[in-house]
């Protein structure tokens, strides 16, 4: 399993727009073979940092999702929404292998 961590720098005056953007993506990731763990909005501390976490069974499955999202109408609409509202200033993506109860190193890539 691979978990994707997205760290967003967002416009703090467009929190509602970014939250809407996140709500668009959660069902899309789930529909396309992943498991979305949610978006995490600013609360205390920095008012312009948000996070998202979602997992795919393999890195290959994630790459397949990324490719499919380029032609999926709902995904393209979500990308356009972010562009139109300019709620995202920048983002960075990292990949992790989760350690879960009952998991073993045998399942590591």
UniProtKB/TrEMBL annotation:
<feature type="domain" description="NIPSNAP">
    <location>
        <begin position="7"/>
        <end position="99"/>
    </location>
</feature>
<dbReference type="InterPro" id="IPR011008">
    <property type="entry name" value="Dimeric_a/b-barrel"/>
</dbReference>
<protein>
    <submittedName>
        <fullName>NIPSNAP family protein</fullName>
    </submittedName>
</protein>
<dbReference type="Pfam" id="PF07978">
    <property type="entry name" value="NIPSNAP"/>
</dbReference>
<dbReference type="InterPro" id="IPR012577">
    <property type="entry name" value="NIPSNAP"/>
</dbReference>
